[in-house]
Amino acid sequence: MTQPTFSQKLQAGSTFPDISVTDLHTKTHVLGQPGEGKDWQLVVVYRGQHCPICTKYLNKLQKHKNKLMDTGVDIIAVSADSKEQLESHLDDLSVDFTLGYGLTEENMKALGVYISDPRSEKETDHPFAEPALFVVDQSGIIRIIDISNAPFSRPDVDILVDGLQWLRKPDNDYPVRGTHA
User: Fold this and answer.
1) Average pLDDT across the chain, whole number
2) For this UniProt entry, which residues form the secretion signal (predicted)?
3) How many distinct structural domains can be found in the chain?
4) Can you tell me the distance from the alpha carbon of 146 to that of 46, in angstroms, rounded to the nearest whole number?
């Protein structure tokens, strides 16, 4: 067993790092910069096509896309997969939000996500990010962070969406939480 290396984790209330990914239409997307006329962005980092739990999670997120968009929250999901792996993954995905590919190890380290090596070539052919989720506001500030080191530990989509709907109501004036390091 190799000795683990430790990564620097992003902090709630900090500025989201400048990271770009490409979608299947060769369009470049800067993570944390929403599209579709929205002012916040939900950035979902997933393990890749080899992960059936990721596939299930992304498909469930699709069922809440309209609620998120109505709340002003754009969605992008990204992985370290290649374009070919993402194209193959589309056979199992039923989503129409943006999917980006090609996260590099440098990108993953900048995001502070846990990085794993494949168990075998059957799994995948490259190091990949474990699940993470970031909600970034119109100023590029990280409002919510969830970083996991296992595929089965991630926020419940129903609770997340309900929480974002509540958070976006101006009368609630909810601050960024967890800002004490």
Assistant:
1) 94
2) none
3) 1
4) 12
